Amino acid sequence: MSQHTAFDVLTATCPSRTSLARIANKWTAMVVIALGSGRKRFGDLRTAVDGISGKVLTDTLRNLERDGLVARHVYPEVPPRVEYELTALGHTLQVPLRALGRWAEEHIEEVLAARESYDAR
User: What is the DSSP string of 57-120?
Assistant: First the structure.
């Protein structure tokens, strides 16, 4: 029987904060959602995640790979072919991130109206 350390994301020194910060990043969420449909090459990901720069996509993929959420597959071809896919751990983010994406889409009109009302004051 293993003992689990109690983590509290609200505590300043808790290491889980770094994971939450990574997941809460808009580009991370979009890349994870895009990879939910299966392996993709860098260019396909860049097309799927409209507006992301190559540098930001590269950094995001490296961070996701470092955290064990994305696997990078390099094929010994000329030119080299590289594909990315979610790991088992990465797949566990699919449901919550898709839910957040749906929430954003379903409530954007209310959010825009609230912003307009706030800005008018």
Answer: HHHHHHHHHHTTSEEEEEE--SS-EEEEEE-HHHHTTHHHHHHHHHHHHHHHHHHHHHHHHHHH
Let me know: does 93 contact 33? Beta carbons within 8 Å: no
DSSP letter at 10?
Answer: T
Hey, what are 60's tokens? 């995001």
Tens of pLDDT along 91-116? 999 999 989 989 999 999 999 999 99
- Listed in sequence order, the residues at least 6 apart from 49 whose beta carbon sits closer than 8 Å to its beta carbon are 27, 30, 31, 34, 57
Domain locations in the chain as residue ranges: 16-120
Enumerate the β-bridge partners of residue 83: 41, 73
pLDDT at 79: 87
> With respect to CATH, is domain 16-120 assigned 1.10.10.10?
yes
